[in-house]
Amino acid sequence: MSGGVVVMPLEWHWRPSAEPLPAQAAVARGAAARALHARLLQLAPEQQSGLSAMAGPDLLVVVGDADALPWVNGVAYAGPVHEAPGLWLPTVEEPDLPLDLIARSLQREHPKRQPLLLWPRPAFVLPLDRLLPLSAALLARIGTHWDCTRA
Fold this sequence. Notes:
Number of helices: 4
Shape: globular
Largest sheet: 8 strands, mixed
Strand content: 25-35%
Strand order of the largest sheet: 9-8-6-5-2-4-3-10
């Protein structure tokens, strides 16, 4: 081995949050993502104002003020962690390691992609830097993308 630095992966587990985070994002996968998409299509343009969204295969994330986030069965919520800027977590779960340590580790892995949503099940890290303002056009693009990936 050369004189390089060896970085060991962090070992940690999820636990219930000592204090729930304020919700600023709705996170939905699978059938819940489709239901959330359908619910967003029902919103009037003034209700969509202030919301942003991004989607992937079977995933939909909507960000905005807590009282503007829609609810559908199966949706979960996330929010930013004040003691670890750039890190977003589920509102009711947290890692069992110091959050600033988790944030620094993730920021090393994703140096140009902030903020980062860390999700427990299924486990993923999602950069939230490509959110787009919610609109009928964006929802149509998401629906078309999902229809094409199912075919």
